[in-house]
Amino acid sequence: MNIEITARHFTPSADLKDFVNDKVSKLLKYDPKINLIRVVLLKESRAEKVELIVNSKNKQYITNCYSSVFEKTILKAVDNIKIQIIKK
After folding, report:
1. Do residues 34 and 56 make contact, with C-beta atoms less than 8 angstroms apart?
2. What is the rounded distance in angstroms from the CA atom of residue 70 to the CA atom of residue 43?
3. pLDDT at residue 44 in the model
4. DSSP 3-state of 8
5. pLDDT digits (tens, 9 = 90+) for 48-87
6. End-to-end distance of the chain based on CA atoms, in angstroms?
7. Which residue has the higher pLDDT, 46 or 63?
8. Which residues contact 87 (CB under 8 A, 6 or more apart)?
9. 71 — phi, psi (to 5°)?
10. What totals of helices (H) and strands (E) does the chain contain, helices first?
11. CATH placement of domain 2-87
């Protein structure tokens, strides 16, 4: 499984990258056929946006989340994808 992290308008810290890798890799429990996860981190004026695109052999899952802190936004995005996978 590949994890691509893209940051727009800032440079992510190593801790943030490790946090993202740790949280999104847990999605494999719900769909072991995931082959690519794209994470786009976007810093805007008042909010921090996370776009999560998960490609599986079965389907593609996409979510966009906004919050004031990247860590909280990433957790929300992973939960949204987890719900989409469970529904399928």
Report:
1. yes
2. 9
3. 84
4. strand
5. 999 999 999 979 999 999 999 889 999 999 999 999 999 8
6. 20
7. 63
8. none
9. -60, -45
10. 2, 4
11. 3.30.160.100
The residue with tokens 């769909």 is: 31
Give residue 31's identity as a one-letter amino acid code. D
Q: Which pTM was predicted?
A: 0.88
Domains in the chain: boundaries: 2-87
Closest CA to 73 of 24, 9, 37: 24
Q: What is the mean pLDDT of the chain?
A: 92
Residue type, 88: K
| Contact call for residues 5 and 12 (beta carbons, < 8 A) | yes
For residue 68, give the 3-state DSSP assignment. Answer: coil
Residues near 54 by beta carbon (within 8 Å), at least 6 away in sequence:
24, 27, 31, 34, 36, 37, 38, 60, 61, 62, 81, 85
